[in-house]
Amino acid sequence: MEAVRFDDAKHHRVGKPEARLALVDALLECGDPGDCAAAVLDWLCRHSGVCRGLCLMIDPDVDELRGIAAIGIDEPNATVAVANLHERTHPLVIALESREPVLFSPADEGDRYPPTPLGATPFLAAPLASISASERSAFGLLLVTMHDDRATGEADERLLGWAADALGVRLAALGYARARNSEQRLQREANRLKGVIEAVTDPILLTDSDGRILVSNSGAEHLLTVDPEAGEGRRRAVSLNNMLFSASLFTNVEQGEATRRELLLADPVDGQDLLFELLTSPFPLTRGDVGTVSVLRDVNDLSRATQEIEENYRRLRTAEAEIRAERDRLDVILSSELDPIVVTDWGGNIVLMNPPAERLFTVPETTRSRQADLRVRSNDAVFTSFASDIYAGRSLRWKKDLSLIDPETGRQIPMKAVSAKTRAKPGKDAAVVTILHDQSEAVEKTRLYEKVKHHSQELEQRVREATRELAEQNELLRRQALQLEQASAMKSQFLANVSHELRTPLHAVVGYTSLLLEGVSGELTPKQREKLSRVDSNASHLLAIIDDLLDLARIESGKMPVRTETFRIADVFREVRSESESLIDGSGLEVRFDAGEGIAPIVSDRKKVKQILLNLLSNALKFTPAGHVRIEAVHDPDAGRVRIAVADTGIGISPENQQTIFEAFGQSETIFTVKQNGTGLGLSICRRLAEVLDGEITLDSELGVGSTFTLVLPVRAEEP
Amino acid sequence: MNAFKQPLVLVVDDYEAGRELCAEYLEFRGYAVITAVDGAEALEKARRLLPDAILMDLSLPEMDGWEATRLLREDRTTRDIKIIALTAHALDTERQRALDAGCDELVTKPIIPKELERVVRDHLGLESAPDEG
Q1: d(CA A510, nearest CA chain B) in Å
Q2: CB distance from B107 to chain A under 8 Å?
Q3: What one-character DSSP code corresponds to residue A263?
Q4: Average pLDDT score over chain A
Q5: Which chain B residue shows the shortest CA-CA distance from A562?
Q6: Start-end of CATH 3.30.450.40 domains in chain A
Q7: Is A574 in contact with A594 (CB distance < 8 Å)?
Q8: Distances in Å between the alpha carbon of A538 and those of A155, A532, A678?
Q9: Residue B101 in contact with residue B66, Cβ under 8 Å?
Q10: Are A285 and A259 in contact (CB under 8 A)?
């Protein structure tokens, strides 16, 4: 126990020595701070003008001044905290720093500080402190108030100072002093720090220059310390971690400043690699030693976090790109020149329009007219009515035909409006997008289609009528054809009958003439014979005419039979010469046949070829007064034809007669009179026969020089 | 040929001039001649008298020449009689019908009697006319 020392110079004037001695005795008998303080307050009340008093002590746990003893004040309030030490400007805190008692008047302070338990009356505050030179710091206050009728005097202050000193010394002696207070605080702060570093999940540790661990948290202990009873693997892992950490630490300490570097350690429990970022900073220790604070940041989590952040960033970018693309698409749609698009909010207000829609729902700047304004209003009314239907309706999509007006031109535009509600949040209608499709074209198309359809039907009707008419015409033609056929048949039959009817009497004429000339009815006189010869000749002529007529009739009715066979032209020439012998002899002309040695047999109707040649030869003989007649055959292999020319040196035929000579009964009167033997049908029949044989007859003639009739025939006539 | 060695010719023609002409000339040339004016008579006389040859006109009343010829050809007793069709028809179809019916020859009117006699003579296989024989 430390001896109480008195400053005689200061205290000899305070109180009576006996009284002071009595207080010291009382203090020495007390072992409790509260009892000591109570003894001092009681002594002050008895030996000075103090009427109320309070002893305050610093509570180191909460840094507050708390009462431990009081006098003249209600007991419950005595121990109430009266001031916080951190309030540097608080009068009591200031008093703690003072060496002498200080007078305070709470009334002067106003409402700045809560009143002490002593109330608003002025009081004296004396610090309580140990009086040793090294630790002169107050750990408490002694507050006293004088009797109302007594002013605070110097003597009171002195007595209070002495009493406070005595209490301070006694309390210090009792160990309730600043030194002990500091130790407790240190321990408390150490605990706090420990709590703080334990709260950090990253391993933290303080090492001295030799690498010994001074402070560590459980994270660090997990990695670097091990129970000697632990398994082999775990001990080896911890040993390896210590080696790696020490090596890393040594390098850092050499550098003598805060550093950071990566450190790969092993988890002693599962052996997994753990990547740390080692942050070190120098830390001054006692005796000039410098330790190191190390923080091991778990980079494993960091790298995972980094990856996650990167992944999120990538997703964000993708989403952003998608949104941008979507936005672009929307822009394209909205800025499209084709269809007006209107976006309306839930209240029916137009919030977005593309240019085509603007043309419908806004008055054009260029033609700001009343008319345009009215039209826009009309459009607005129509659209609003439509929009209200959508809001009223439950379906997400809506379709309707609207009739809008072009504000500029006033043209009626039939529109098909298609709307869709968009949903920003589930179940909540956000906006309505409406696309207006111009139906003018479709309407026009429909109109045109109807028109085309109408015309088409009309055309169809006409075609039907025309077809019916055609069918009637066809029927008529068919009947006419039938009638013609019948007529033709009748004509042929008629000709055949006429031929028959003519021949029958002619037979009698020819027969009886022949009978008479033969002398069956007795000898005739020369005159009779001559006249009978005339009858005979004319009968023959008549017969020739009848034969020719019959031939013509057969050709014209298409009933001329063609019987093809293969024959040589030279053979036909011989027959023609033979049958025409009397004529040739009678003509006195030189007649020459030349069938050309190289001409191959042809295929044709032999009888008809002969008939034609007989006719041509007889004509040539008839109309050639003098000179010669040549019948010549030439083969034209390129054309596949044979040309048989009958050339005479006769009277010739004038160009105009050349045109008509092949017509039936075309023989000119002049010619007829020269020789009476022609029927006028010969050439006509010849030409037609040639045609029946797929050939032709050409004429080359000059008046007074002669004529050449050429029969051209195919080498191989087709079977009919 | 009958016993008198005079060939018997049946001349069938509804046209009197034609019939008489033939009959007169053939008798002049030594033939025995009988006549008929239609097909039915011709058929009856041919069956009864069995002529050596028949000069058959085709367009006839009662029964035409084609039909008569066909019937004569069907009958065994008359089948070998020479039948020479004598017609004013000139159409090929009618001529062909005559040959199809069974005529041995077809002669078109008009024909001078002398030539007609030559045709008959040829068919009867005579070297000359009976009057010359």
Answers
A1: 6
A2: no
A3: E
A4: 78
A5: B92
A6: 8-184
A7: no
A8: 210, 10, 12
A9: yes
A10: no
Residue identified by tokens 């055949």 is A496
**For range A146-153, the mean pLDDT:** 65
What does the pLDDT look like over A511-569, one tens digit per residue? 899 888 888 888 888 898 888 888 888 888 888 888 877 777 777 777 777 888 898 88
Which helix (H) or strand (E) segment is A641 a member of? strand A641-648
Alpha carbon distance A547, A679 (integer Å): 10
Sheet holding A204-207, edge to edge: A213-216, A204-207, A290-298, A273-284, A259-266
pLDDT of residue A672: 39
Which residue shows structure tokens 């609207």?
Answer: A402
Distance between CA atoms of residues A507 and B55, nearest Å: 14
| CA pair distance A108, A122, nearest whole angstrom | 9
Q: Taking a C-beta distance cutoff of 8 angstroms, is the pair A78, A70 a contact?
A: yes
* Cα-based distances in Å from A284 to A44, A291, B123: 50, 6, 173
**E strands along A240-374, which residues?**
259-266, 273-284, 290-298, 341-345, 350-353
In CATH, what class is A336-438?
alpha beta
Which residue, among B6, B4, B23, B19, has the nearest Cα to B124 in the 3D structure?
Answer: B6
Residue in the structure block whose two tokens are 């004037």: A13
Closest CA to A576 of A717, A711, A718, A715: A711
Architecture of the structural domain at A8-184: 2-Layer Sandwich (3.30)
How many other CB atoms are found less than 10 A from the CB of residue A52? Answer: 20
3 state SS of A434: strand
A522: contact with B, CB 8 A cutoff: no
Of A501, A543, A550, the CB nearest to B110: A543
Q: Which amino acid is at A239?
A: S
CATH number of A201-335: 3.30.450.20
How many angstroms away from the CA of A466 is the closest CA of chain B?
44
With H, G, I as helix, E, B as strand and everything else as coil, classify residue A102.
strand
A545: contact with B, CB 8 A cutoff: no
